């Protein structure tokens, strides 16, 4: 840490922004007349804090130390790669289901894609768990000890990534159930469709929390913010996955799916959205 990064200052006042119990942006005035701004997503993804010294017209970005930056960069790369590969496998699975024979081949492709989604979401959770925290005594970000798990529901970034990770685990039940053969319509709805619907609902909840985080309150449009684009594209994919899940319900009386075309195309388009979100995430790094 440089001398300017480690210089101790005193706070005279601070302003918190966010939604409900969550703080997503904190601005405090330093004792020397400058200001420092901590934002949840830039700190978690890029390891950045914005500081404006007294007399300066433009703020400067101040980075966390090399340890935090290395962690965030590594976890970001793992998550981005996992989302791109997982999304690609879901595109392949949906294509097989729509244009090929489907059956066990498509189910195994989906299952492999689900494992990559599990990996990407856990890496995103680790990024929230190990994000550098703003230090109350200095205008800089402080590196935390490495942890594989934490319980911090009062932090919106942790809650969003945790809900998403749980969603992928629930979705895994759906993928395992789809590998079983000879299921009745009722068993398909219970073992395959219901976990699919719950997982998609959790995806939507996580995406909404991520939008609240990046918009510091009510979701809106921020076309010049890369983080907003990543969240928005992923949320669009979650909406398509939900449409696919609703269309994939099996009628107990007839054993037929509500609309197989919507189910397959919704999955394919949603997976492409997750691929795009993963590709954009490569650029949101320290």
Keywords:
286 residues, alpha+beta, five-stranded antiparallel sheet, two-stranded antiparallel sheet, 8 helices, 59% helix, disordered N terminus
Describe the structure in your own words.
This protein has 286 residues and is α+β, with helices and mostly antiparallel strands. It folds into 2 domains: 3-63, no CATH class; 66-281. It is built from 8 helices and 7 strands; from the N terminus they run αβββαββααββαααα. The strands form 2 sheets. It has a 5-stranded antiparallel sheet with strand order 1-2-3-4-5. It has a two-stranded antiparallel ribbon with strand order 6-7. The longest helix has 34 residues, at 66-99.
Please provide a brief summary of the model.
With 286 residues, the protein is an alpha+beta fold.
Percentage of residues assigned to helices: 55-70%
Instruction: Indicate the proportion of strand residues.
Output: 5-15%
Number of strands: 7
> Can you tell me the number of structural domains?
2
Low-confidence stretches are: 1-12
Largest β-sheet summary: 5 strands, antiparallel
Look at the structure and give the mean pLDDT: 89
Strand-pairing-aware structural class: alpha+beta
**Count of helical stretches:** 8
Order of helices and strands: HEEEHEEHHEEHHHH
Strand adjacency order, main sheet: 1-2-3-4-5
Shape: elongated
Distance between the termini: 16 Å
Quaternary form: single chain
């Amino acid at each position: 840490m440089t001398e300017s990064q480690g210089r101790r200052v005193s706070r005279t006042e601070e302003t918190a922004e966010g939604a409900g119990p969550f703080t997503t942006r904190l601005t405090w005035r330093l004792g020397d007349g400058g200001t420092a701004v901590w934002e949840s997503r830039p700190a978690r993804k890029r390891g950045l804090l914005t500081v404006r010294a007294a007399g300066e017209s433009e703020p400067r970005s101040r980075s966390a130390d090399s340890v935090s930056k290395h962690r965030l960069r590594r976890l970001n790369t793992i998550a981005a790669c996992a989302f791109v590969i997982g999304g690609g496998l879901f595109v392949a699975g949906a294509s097989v289901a729509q244009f090929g024979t489907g059956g066990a081949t498509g189910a195994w492709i989906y299952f492999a894609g689900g494992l990559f989604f599990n990996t990407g979401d856990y890496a995103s959770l680790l990024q929230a768990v190990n994000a550098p925290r703003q230090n109350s005594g200095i205008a800089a970000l402080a590196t935390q000890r490495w942890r594989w798990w934490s319980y911090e529901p009062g932090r919106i970034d942790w809650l969003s990534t945790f809900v998403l990770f749980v969603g992928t685990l629930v979705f895994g039940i759906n993928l395992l159930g789809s590998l079983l053969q000879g299921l009745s319509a009722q068993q398909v709805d219970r073992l395959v469709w219901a976990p699919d619907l719950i997982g998609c609902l959790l995806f939507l909840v996580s995406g909404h929390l991520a939008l609240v985080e990046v918009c510091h309150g009510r979701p809106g449009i921020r076309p010049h913010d890369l983080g907003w684009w990543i969240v928005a594209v992923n949320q669009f994919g979650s909406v398509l996955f939900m449409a696919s899940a609703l269309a994939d319900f099996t009628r107990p009386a007839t054993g037929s799916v509500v609309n197989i075309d919507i189910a397959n195309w919704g999955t394919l388009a949603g997976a492409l959205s997750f691929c795009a979100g993963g590709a954009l995430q490569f650029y949101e790094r320290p």
